[in-house]
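Please think about what follows:
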Amino acid sequence: MKIAIVNDLMMAVEALRRVVCSCPDYTIAWVARDGAEAVQKCAVDRPDMILMDLIMPVMNGAEATRHIMRDSPCPILVVTATVDGNISLVFEAMGYGALDAVNTPVLGTDGKLTGAQALLRKIEIIGHLISRPAPMSPAAMEFGALPTVKGRLPLIVLGASTGGPAALADILSRLPAVVNAAVVVIQHVDKEFAPDLALWLGTRCPLNVKVATLGCRPETGVVWLAGTNDHMVLTEHGTLEYQVEPVECFYRPSADVFFKSVAAHWSPPGVAVLLTGMGRDGGEGLLALRRCGWRTLAQDKATSIVYGMPRAGAELGAAEKILPLSAIADAIMQGIEKRIMNPIQDDHGKHKR
């Protein structure tokens, strides 16, 4: 794998170089000292992955990510000295298409590296995703029984990955402050960033965004965000829980796993949305929800940073409508209002599967 380094600090570049060269499968493609130089070099020699700093002269890492993902798209991992101190820029970069973020390894005066393993693990995970971009998720959760109608409030579920933070901020900012529905979000993000993502989204919308904790329940006016590296599921008791299975599902938390659990255990039908993201996670789950009578939406190609997850939903026939990002919030509210006024029922008074 050819990996490029974008960083203006010589010590940071040397630390990153040592980490990359410690693995025989990785080589250095090139080094850029600022975002503008990275954009130029990527246009000429596109690497397999870019390790992108955030705070740099001429052009910062978020803006460089925007240009690269628009003109010469390739996987980008944000590697910066203080992730916690630059969280807004981290999510800005992720909104433009960066896949993840990690702190820059530190090269001590004794020549020892601190933080090398964390970076190698991130590179490994992203390498796995880009080398296997399109497999369907394991059908480890098959549900056959009809969900029991218990008069629960309508539910809005959203799944996203690459480019998701910005897409979620756009949709949530357009929803009314008082909405007669609960909202649950599955965003592919490392657990250490989930609390910051909740805070970041909360400053951009009128709703209360929280990280979902074990046993919490969907509730009106609250956006629950999956917050661990395990899969979040909805139980038959209407609570949100986390589980390790299916282990073989590399997308964690998985939109497919969550959507299928919702199809099994929640009624009446609500609205499900599949947003920008690499891979095919969420397509099968969206189809399961559509078969239960849910309004199902997918983001269109033109407004997606990566048209992977929503494309999977479209190819499976899981999405009733494929819409630009700016139209999704209105479609969600129309779907909720329709579900409240006209619940979908069969001749026996039960929601269709």
